[in-house]
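pinning this so it doesn't scroll away 📌
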Amino acid sequence: MAVRLIYQLLIQVISWLALLAQSSASKDAEILVLRHEVAMLRRGNPKPRLDWTDRAVLAARADPAEGTASSPDRRACDAPALAPSPAHREMAPAQTTGPPTDQR
């Protein structure tokens, strides 16, 4: 196990040193080749197009309790409703006047 770890670290260090020794032009050429490879792979396996029935199934399976990724502060707004602040004092039932209210 330790030999494998040392081997992996040695390979990483050597690859970093080889990367430092490369010229800027060779790095640019490698980036262009990799971009071309990604473009070729995407042509062979295009992104699936969703039909309206697919979207309906996905919407039905979505869990509304999870919330959305675009509103992370949504849970923060709901937190005070879950636990009242210590300064909050409830009125005794004998002191209430009027119709009963829904206390959370």
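📌 and the second one:
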Amino acid sequence: MARLAEFSEKWQAKYPAAVRAWERSWSEVVPFLAFPSPIRKIISTTNAIESLNARYRRSVNACGPSRTRPPPSSGSTSPPSPSPRPVKAASGGPAAGKRP
């Protein structure tokens, strides 16, 4: 708590909101700092990845499903079926305009 008091004295006048945030969160921050540095890095990285995934989910939910792909089937792992429309040959190739 002495370190928090030092921090508060130094920054209270310039950054009162930051000091209040640290004072509210101090009981959660101290146990986190007790972990060794490599473990803290893993925890922070995991939180960053989870945050990014949450942003992706919010974005997808806000925009709706993709219109370029059909929705995934229920549990089927087979490849998609072929398109029902016939595929046209590319024009301008060596066989273009020739009939057998």
